[in-house]
Amino acid sequence: MTRVAVCELGPVTIRRLDGVPRTADPDLADAALQAGDDPMTVVGERAVRTAAVWRRVLTPLLDGASEAHLIHPSWWPATRPAMVAAAAAGLADRVLTRPRSASAAADAVVEIGPDQLLVARAGGHVVETRSGTTEALAARVAELVDGAGSVALDAPADVPGATVLGGLITARLRTGVTPVDPRQWAIEPAAPDLPTPARAGNRWRWVAGVGLGGALAGAAWLAAPEAAVDAPPTVALVEGRISTAVPDGWAVRRVTDGPGSARLEVAAPGEPAAVLHLTQAAVPGGDLPAVAATLHAALREQPPGVFVDFNPTDRRAQRPAITYREIRPGAEIRWTVLVDDGIRIGIGCVGPPELSAVCDAAIGSAHRIR
Fold this sequence. Notes:
Elements: E1 4-9, E2 14-16, E3 22-23, H1 26-35, E4 40-43, E5 46-49, H2 50-61, E6 67-72, H3 79-87, E7 94-99, E8 108-112, E9 116-121, E10 124-129, H4 134-144, E11 150-154, H5 162-172, E12 176-179, H6 183-187, E13 204-207, E14 222-225, E15 234-239, E16 242-247, E17 251-255, E18 263-268, E19 271-282, H7 288-300, E20 307-316, E21 319-328, E22 331-340, E23 343-350, H8 356-365, E24 367-368
Parallel strand pairs: 1-6, 6-7, 8-11, 11-12
Antiparallel strand pairs: 1-2, 2-3, 4-5, 8-9, 9-10, 13-14, 15-16, 16-24, 17-18, 18-19, 19-23, 20-21, 21-22, 22-23
């Protein structure tokens, strides 16, 4: 029997909602949440790896669970839930993530955090900073949800000022407002509801993200051609000495023949053109510049035109990285190489540019298991 643990990851408190509720150590939870996408955070007076803190936070909460649903603030970038899922590798057989706004059945969702709020409607969302007066912000939210048949208001009681702001928003809306109660997620945990990767084609995505009084002042939503999609729900893939987040449901196989290094291949179901390649190798004492020099020398020995655009000082998913392209008949692999505690990790992406969120999630979460 699958035992599902449903956990709320912030914006202020980290807790398990199902069964007997459990709340994470507040100091560790604060350190994890305040770290954001920084690889290091501070616990007490010590600098600690953020992934290690997340694992310490989640270990007691996921005790006895075979499946974990981690529900996070909707304004998190795709790399952050992927990193948390990878940090939870092994604590449950299956780890899934989803944003808070995906758990509410309404035409519009208003989600209030300590420093910002998010308004989600079909096709996209707007993030507003909590600047200016509370009354002005409530009026702005009312503009953004105008025309929605139903509104879910997610105003966590532990977020400073959320109750007051939520009351002002409710008073301004002409439609019905339903408060979000996170405890309901544990009664009927919704299936993770992040979109799967898809080709953009001629579709449009509604995107926006400016502060109060910014460029959106004269328009509710900004239409733009879709250039990227959010990452789908992820699971932690553990292989040898590394763990990384890969899309849930993608097929994994080991490749040991053909050109290139031995690797794991993670492919999208029904979409053979969308593939992640994962490699690893020990580089004791090696740092990124040393690995870059060795790798560059090895690539120069290959036939001309196979490995191109080598960049030893690039950045991907907010991490220092080596990047280059591998061009083979019928495929081009965009490689990112990281070094973590003596392990060289290679992540190769194959597919259309709009799959970049999947690649960034894998790159941002990849780490050596300690």
